[in-house]
Design brief:
single chain, 174 residues, 3-stranded antiparallel sheet, 11% strand
């Protein structure tokens, strides 16, 4: 499937497969060959959209992608986050809403992510809603997902840490 953004109806320059796997033809073909135990020819046909995959293959691909995105989040922010917050970060990482690349090519954390990592879940909850896709189409699936992120983040704001103490520091305290 091709991906068309709801915010500006712009056709993105990539295809997806299964549950949102971004297809990069040569790289994906190698992955499909190994993951699905198919011939190089079939793997290439899958990567080029000429051959479909089964539901089981799609689930297997999703599990692999999830593991990759989860490891990326942990590598970037460390472990020890509440499971719910880590889940929001991983989901946002799938969408490209966890980190961005600036004009110089440097990786920059989103503002809402910075707030959450600093333990300011109330600010993170508000900031995550400041998203162009949510504003452009408030009834979309993306908008619902962003509101769900906001609710999860807000649920931790009730237990915000004392000034100067991060959530991780509190968990380690005796």
């Amino acid at each position: 499937a091709e991906y068309r953004t709801k915010a500006n109806n712009k056709l993105e320059n990539f295809r997806t497969l299964g549950f949102g796997h971004k297809v990069v033809p040569k790289k994906s073909a190698a992955l499909f060959q190994t993951l699905f135990n198919v011939s190089p020819q079939d793997a290439s046909r899958i990567a080029n959209g000429k051959l479909g995959i089964t539901r089981d293959q799609a689930l297997k691909l999703f599990d692999k992608d999830y593991d990759t995105k989860e490891k990326d989040v942990i590598r970037r922010v460390g472990g020890g986050l509440p499971v719910e917050i880590q889940g929001v970060f991983v989901d946002a990482n799938f969408r490209g809403d966890f980190i961005k690349t600036d004009k110089k090519g440097s990786i920059v954390k989103q503002e809402w992510v910075k707030h959450a990592l600093n333990g300011d879940y109330a600010a993170a909850s508000t900031e995550v809603l400041n998203h162009k896709e949510l504003k452009a189409n408030p009834k979309s699936g993306v908008a619902k997902r962003l509101r769900d992120y906001s609710k999860t983040l807000a649920s931790f704001a009730v237990n915000s840490p004392p000034e100067g103490r991060t959530p991780l520091a509190l968990e380690e305290a005796p």
